[in-house]
Amino acid sequence: MEAQQVVEKILDDANVEADKIKKQAEEKEAAEQARLDKQLTQFDEQTEALAQKAAEDEKSHILAAARMDIAKELLAEKRRIIDEVLQQARQQLQSLSDKEYRNLITKLILQAVESGDEEVLVDRNEKRIDHEFIKQINRQMAPGYKGNIRLSEERRNIGGGFILRRGKIKTNVSIGVLLDQARKELEIELARDLFS
């Protein structure tokens, strides 16, 4: 073989070996690219799932905050309405005719009396509850009660209604206390509505 042929043979062998190495490198690169593509796809899927979960969490948070804001606004509006209703009730109680007012006070005293020998304290400006009125209530007491309640000379600034006193025990049945009690009951209902 001539030197030219030997060189060509070496070059051919080298080209074959280079093609073989190139093919292996391309296959290795393709396999590596496929592995990286798969990892990238998994990463994209995980990222999308995390983003979707974060979006859902944010949406839930926003909706919960919006619901709470609406509930607070509703509660404030209900409280405003309660204030108006109680103010109207106070005005109506204060503007009752003498007969209506005495009927109401009679019922309240008969419900509040425990022994029948209590003392009735009224507002400083009270004119409708007098000794004669108290005598009428004593006559209406059920059996088992002493029927000996009396109007106290002491007057209080209670704005209407009365306080029953027996020794150190006092039962406040003033209009203000009755309206405060109604407010508390209504606010308990409002709280139930807000948190249910």
Task: Produce a short descriptive summary.
The protein has helices spanning 3-94, 98-112, 131-140, 175-195; strands spanning 119-123, 150-156, 161-166, 169-174. With 196 residues, the protein is of the alpha+beta class. It folds into 2 domains: 1-95; 97-190, 2-Layer Sandwich (hypothetical protein PF0899 fold).
How would you portray this structure in words?
It is rod-shaped and about 150 Å long. The chain has helices at 3-94, 98-112, 131-140, 175-195, and strands spanning 119-123, 150-156, 161-166, 169-174. α1 (3-94) packs antiparallel against α4 (175-195). 70% of the residues lie in helices and 12% in strands. The chain folds into two domains: 1-95; 97-190, hypothetical protein PF0899 fold. It has 196 residues and is of the alpha+beta class. β1, α3 (131-140) and β2 form a beta-alpha-beta unit. The N and C termini lie far apart (101 Å). The longest helix is centred in the N-terminal third of the chain and has 92 residues, at 3-94. Strands 2-1-3-4 form a four-stranded mixed beta sheet.
